[in-house]
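Re: the 344-residue chain
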Amino acid sequence: MDAIWNKTAVRCAVFVLLAALGAQAGEPGENWAQQLFTERSHDFGPVPRGGVVRHNFVLVNRSQQPLTILDVRASCGCTTGRASATQIAPGASAVVEAQMDTRNFVGIKATTLTVTLVTAQGTQGEARLAVRSNILSDIVMNPGAANFGVLSKGQGGQQVISIERLGAPQWKITKMSASPRLGQFITASLQENGRSAEGVNYLLTLQIRPEAPAGSIREEVRLSTNDPETPVVPVLVTAEIRGGLTASPALLTLGQAKATGPAVQGRFLIRGSRPFTITSIEGSGDGFTATAADSTSKAQHVVTVAFQAGQAPAQGNLKRTFKLVTDLPDEAPLEIHAAVQSAP
């Protein structure tokens, strides 16, 4: 009996040792993708009908190998997801934003984002992120967000949003606040537009200043109310301000690449409003490379993007974002995007 017990103990010890060695080597275990997120669900609570709300889920790469986000998909058309990065180095973090559009629903609405990831060794995993909201029928926002779209640098713009509270003539918006960054580039004003026994109406006017720098704006204006059931009404503000640099095409499709075949490649034409030099290109790796044709100063440059499937840790539909850094002091790095179908 003692001999049987000793053999069992030895087997257990070996199993534990092998598991520990696997963990030290950075091999993912069961549900590894789920464990990367600090939280996996979020309740927006009561939100106005027509409003657009968002929440950031934080992913932390606690493994010893780089990770790639292959896809973010939603279970419902009312929800979208986007990742702040596609490549996450060991110890680094990224954000997966969940955005819910409440225009076509009233009451409780719950959806799920599925995030597909792959390790450098080719192991795929999925994380499911749940979002939920209680869409109110008596608070209506039109439009549901301040979406300025694409603006040229120096152009500026204006959006007006109507916020209506039905059946509550005593309802008030008591305070308006925003992040310091948004306050630098956006002017916001709130005006009571009507008050009667049927309800209350406010107009929120948002203006982007012409001096706003090139880049993405994705922030919130928060409206505090005197209603304890809906103390805050969030208003999403988005804009893409383009500077003097543009890339053509918007998305470079490289076609299909096979692991045993040659590299596939394509080219971007980068235009500037004045001569410039491309000083560096960030984002190469996992089979992707991007190189500029030359380092001279001129108003147009050609950037070649190539993909070698045999050097990629994953297969399927892959996307890559590169950042072009130039010597123009007032221009943010220009992002260019490429896609490829990687096959065995």
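Residues 10 and 16 are 10 Å apart (CA to CA).
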